[in-house]
Amino acid sequence: MKKALTSGLVAFLLLIGIGTQALGQTFEEQVASLVNQERSKQGLNALTYNTALAKMAEDKAKDMYNKNYFSHPLPPMAHPSI
């Protein structure tokens, strides 16, 4: 029950983006912080936010949007813009 409530709260925060500006964190940093809180509860090491990796992921998401596909491999006839 507690895990479901925690997951629900994380989902709620992600949906509305509450508190990110008040905490002085970007949305991505807020998500990383919430994930690390949950990892800590499970005895796992914290993940480190990687700005370069986040930029590559954002570029990939934009390419997928612009070329109208939802897959990691490129569809036939698609050429990466990144």
UniProtKB/TrEMBL annotation:
SUPFAM superfamilies: PR-1-like
Residues forming coiled coils: none
Domain of life: Bacteria
Signal peptide, first to last residue: 1-24
Domain SCP, residue spans: 33-73
Keywords, alphabetical: Signal
Protein name (record): SCP domain-containing protein
